[in-house]
Design a protein that fits this description.
Strands 1-3-2 form a 3-stranded antiparallel β-sheet. With about 425 residues, the chain is mainly alpha-helical. It contains 21 helices and 3 strands.
Length: about 425
């Protein structure tokens, strides 16, 4: 059964127990008069037999990332391609097959595609018959269940537009806030799986409108989904706040496992948390420690304990891992720059003046590399200091925040005036 079924069985007012987590549509759970509804629901149920902890489309997203990553070996790419095609052919995912062949430049097997279309057409005919029967002979609840089954079927074969369409129709037939939120979660997962930020953002906005009537379990799930979305679009401040709030209550295994969650939460938090928050939420967090991720622990420990000689070595090890993760690979360079600024500022805060040689010794990097790095950061106004090449020293400047904000405002104002002047010249022409 698709994880979409697993999510749709939750009670409207309380988080479900493990014993309650059964597929919404089961032949044994439907009255004899609704045999067509049950038959339609079992179509998906027979394909996989049990609930899956990870959404299949999210798993395929990871495999696609591995295949397209320049840092993956040829063997890893070959295995990823094989697993994608096995999943596609096993579940007759013809729309997804067309998407990946066009996206990745794979050969398109028209004969195999026609066979998958034939199988899907047969299943859709049963689902449509069940919807018609429910509309003519049964009630709104049965109609909703059939529409949900059709929406889940399209999700399982990777048809984004059709899944969203029938998800909207199902939502209109749904009165309770809980099942409506489950449909919003489905939309968010689809947006993430197909790298469509607009779809995910709409799902989050719809979920917030229903949040006041939501139960505790769904509120926590939304925090994870929304936090992951903000990390995906590189808003680490908002993302880390939401993810840290759900650190001790994480249960959204349908979108990422616990270790991946710790990775995303820690990476999002490191550039934006101050030392007190870092110690409280990450350094001393039993959840983070229990994950046992050595690379992360080394980096966090080097930063927090001011072991600057280990910072860049640990940072490089972390960045090597981030390149393999679909949720974080796009932010590797940004994360490296932010952590570099963080440790440089942290080091310089302890001195009013320090020689380049001693700073180079502390970080274990050559003097000329450090000099070039500091020049870049100073020119970009990321570090408040100046370099004296004659004496070979770095002098820090501690201005107040109001002064920094004033100069930033003046600089941005000058840029805006220049752009307006250029625009006015084009208008006059």
């Amino acid at each position: 059964v698709s994880v979409l079924y697993w999510m749709s069985n939750s009670n409207n007012s309380a988080a479900p127990s493990k014993q309650q987590q059964q597929p919404l549509l089961k032949a044994s759970a439907v009255a004899p008069t609704t045999s067509k509804v049950a038959e339609a629901a079992v179509i998906l149920d027979d394909e996989s037999g049990a609930s899956i902890p990870l959404d299949p489309l999210i798993e395929l997203l990871h495999l696609r990332h591995t295949y397209t990553s320049p840092y993956a070996t040829s063997e890893e790419k070959q295995q990823a391609q094989q697993r994608i095609l096995e999943e596609v052919f096993e579940h007759n995912m013809r729309p997804y097959y067309q998407l990946v062949t066009e996206m990745l430049g794979w050969p398109y097997d028209a004969k195999r595609a026609n066979e998958m279309d034939a199988v899907n057409a047969e299943k859709l005919a049963k689902l449509d018959a069940a919807i018609v029967d429910a509309q003519e002979n049964l009630g709104d609840v049965e109609v909703r269940e059939c529409l949900l089954a059709k929406s889940d079927f399209y999700a399982r074969i990777g048809d984004l537009d059709a899944c969203l369409k029938y998800g909207e129709e199902c939502s209109k037939k749904t009165l309770a806030a809980g099942p409506k939120l489950d449909l919003c979660f489905q939309r968010i997962r689809l947006g993430i799986a197909f790298s469509n930020n607009d779809v995910a953002a709409k799902g989050i906005a719809d979920a917030h409108r229903l949040l006041k009537d939501a139960d505790w379990e769904r509120r926590n799930r939304l925090k994870v989904y929304e936090g992951l979305y903000y990390v995906f679009i590189r808003d680490f401040a908002k993302g880390s706040k939401l993810l840290l709030d759900s650190l001790s209550t994480f249960a959204s295994y349908e979108i990422l496992d616990f270790k991946q969650f710790i990775w995303v939460t820690t990476i999002a938090g490191l550039p934006v948390l101050d030392r007190q928050e870092l110690k409280k939420h990450i350094v001393d967090s039993p959840e983070v420690l229990s994950a046992g991720i050595t690379e992360l622990q080394d980096l966090v420990g080097a930063i927090f304990q001011c072991q600057y000689k280990d910072c860049f070595r640990a940072l490089d090890a972390v960045c090597q891992q981030l390149r393999k993760m679909v949720f974080l690979s796009a932010h590797v360079n940004y994360f490296f720059r932010e952590i570099r600024v963080l440790v440089m500022n942290q080091f310089l805060d302890s001195y009013s003046s320090v020689t380049l040689k001693s700073m180079s010794s502390a970080f274990h990097i050559p003097v000329h590399v450090l000099d070039s790095m500091l020049c870049t950061l100073i020119s970009n106004e990321r570090i408040a200091c100046k370099i004296d090449r004659v004496s070979g020293s770095v002098t820090t400047y501690r201005g107040n925040q109001a002064n920094f904000d004033f100069h930033k405002l003046i600089k941005n104002g000058d840029l805006l005036i220049n752009r307006i002047q250029k625009l006015s010249r084009h208008v006059e022409m």
